[in-house]
Amino acid sequence: MRFPLFLSSIVVAVGLCAHAAFAVERWSPTPAQIATLEANADAQWRRIFVDGKPRARTDWGTLASFVLNGLAANYAPMRVAAGIEALAGLQDTNAASPTFGNVHWYVGDTKLVDRNGVEFTTRHMSIAWLLFADRLTPEQLAPLRKLLDLARIGVSRHQVSISYTNIFLMKAWNLIALGQIFADADAIAQGTGMLRDWLARVRAVGIEEYLSTGYYAVDIENLGLVENLAQDWIARELARQGLDIVWGELARHWYAPGQRLGGPHSRTYDRLYSRGDVHAFVARAGWLGETARASGDPYRALAFGAPAPAATAWLTAPLPRFERGMAGENRRHASYHGKSLYIGSAEASYGYEDSPLTAMLGAGVDMPTISFTMDGRRDYFGRDRIVEAGSGHPKALHLRPAIASAQRGTEVLLLGAARNARPEDNSMSSTVILPADAEFHLDARKLDIFNAASKWRVDPPAERERTAIEIVAAENRTELRIDDRSDTAGIGVMQLLPADAGDRLNLSAELAGGPVALYLNFLDGAGQLIGGENIKSVRSDPDRFGRFDFAATAPAGTVRVKAWLYSSIAARASVRVRDLRVARAQTLSAAQDVAHFDLIPYRRDEIEVPTGATLFVRRGDAALAIRALGVWGTDDTPATFRLINDGLGYGALRLTATQAETRGEGRGLTALWLLGAEDIRDTAAFEAFRAKASTIDTRVARAGERIELGSSGTQGPLGFVYDLARNSYIARTGVPERLDGAVAVDGKTLER
Q: Could you give the count of Cα atoms lying within 13 Å of 65 in the half-sphere of its Cβ?
């Protein structure tokens, strides 16, 4: 139910009167959850503290989790108090400082870089005070009260744009929470007013951090805290309306065959699989099959608002459908959502973590998402993280090109225009990631390309000159070789496999060298570890192979198991592996292998894909045609795409055009045409699609700062003219110039 937004103006008068009608209830864990919280708190204490002091580079989140979970379990008050003291030690207490009241991200930091620290810390510690303040003595509580009191200054001084959705909503909750803690009606009114303003903006121009695989989860957390813990009924109702909008976006774009969020995406940190924190939330909502069990810690239990039936109804709505949406006044995106094909594009760029063009063909959780990026560090798959100057956090950032596109149905024209912008940029390239297990044709020729894709995935990603993995042929056997030369980074291979409570799993490895660890970690539907880590450390003579087995039984609530062979960050290792498998036995049934040593020695291929040629990708009963209309380097000379495989680490191939071998001062340009199709059930259907795509005329024309992309189209002409100097459209053909609302599905404006 909605109510008129003008009611928000009476937040203080009505909201404060409503306090008595809504009491914040303490989160009550089960005995089993308490035991888990205590065990985790013990483990955290050992990892975080040395002689009662936190280790350097411990972040606020680790400390806040320790404090909140410790309070919920009534764990060792003196240790919890030490955690509070450590958090308070991160706060800027210099009244003359411009960041007074804010919070450093890491222990030992002397410069406050990320000013969101106060928002994240307050979000957690306000729960600690609201629910568990009576579990500490006044002396132990004093640092927490001081932290929250100074946070009122830090939060109020923190300027957050309404377009910065996740932090804007976080600040709204923090103001409401601090208002409740300190009986500050003005803070409650301000936080509730922010919710009202955000809702009004979203209904007019959409969510500006659009379809983010990570930050939609943060939005749900923020709005869930308001719905679950705000005393003011208007704030709770506004939060529910916001939750309905976010969940509706997730449901409309949820690509069930790939178990992931369809794109395009702003702010995604997983370029390969379009995964992020939203997966834990959709699992709790039951979208991945069995509904995940209730969360075992207070933050995850309270920072969640479930989807309403109106949102989840989109999961079973008819397909295909075509959606256009807004992501701000001058940004739009479009998506075709079919039964076995998803393709989406953005008409403008948001930031350095965007995937402005994505597509998915067929089914599979291990299927890489087809996506386009421009990069300045040869980090084609988004796995090479470096510290970002603006936040102080390690990220795999690509370039931020000016993006222009036109999409109608399954046909897309896309333009990317980028310059090297950061000191670490040492090259320029444009890349389209492609699933390795697909069939590839270049015009009429089927390609012979090494595209073997193991189900084992490198985890964590290799770090240049520190850790590496390769597959080689040795002594008539295939070997997986792990090289870990770092004291601060680890590497290994893993598989996520379905599992049920009571399953007996056995991880078996034949290896030489070490040390490495065998893990069987059981996860619930939200991807959270249950039952603690199950680890066995093994090593063998470097020149003699030995077989090692490690077995564990899945506890109640298990949905998946992570089978992992891992060289940890604490040890260096050189390991040769020539067998790695997982077997499962259930009660009264024989053991059966559920994961095999499916690795094949890598053969590098590099095939030129000329400008104007069409690359066809077929996977399952879907197909995609990709044609480069034009590619120019930073020196304005033409560049050419090449189809390249890079081995085990990715399960993907890449279509890459190198636009500068070194850092260039000029601008790189990439113009692409794409056409997708589904119901490609046999060779005849695929040949018909190839013939259709081959008859479509495409063009690109440049005149100074003006560039035009066009297609004869599947439904008439499609195209646009773009001004590179002003980063704006001059004209468009085949797409509507504007939307009547923030979202239109199959041409009909969606009320929300």
A: 17
Tell me the average pLDDT across 26-40: 85
Q: Which of these CATH numbers, 3.10.20.30, 2.60.120.280, 2.60.120.260, 3.40.640.10, describes 457-595?
A: 2.60.120.260
User: Tens digits of per-residue pLDDT, 558-601?
Assistant: 888 999 999 987 778 899 999 999 999 865 456 789 999 999 88
Contact indicator for 60, 121 with CB cutoff of 8 Å? yes
Phi first, then psi: give them for residue 148, nearest 5 degrees: -70, -35
Which one-letter DSSP state was computed for residue 245?
A: H
Residues 6+ apart with CB under 8 A from 83: 48, 63, 66, 67, 70
Q: How confident is the model at residue 3 (pLDDT cuts 50, 70, 90)?
A: very low
Reported as type and span, the H/E element at residue 374 is: strand 370-375
- Which alpha helices (H) appear in 287-335, and where do they start and end? 298-302, 309-312
Closest C-alpha to 565, from 493, 496, 506: 493
What is the reported pTM? 0.90
C-alpha to C-alpha distances, 211 to 270, 517, 750, nearest whole angstrom: 13, 37, 17
CATH, domain 318-440+607-749, list 2.70.98, 3.30.70, 2.60.40, 3.40.1130: 2.70.98
Q: Class for domain 5-302, per CATH?
A: mainly alpha
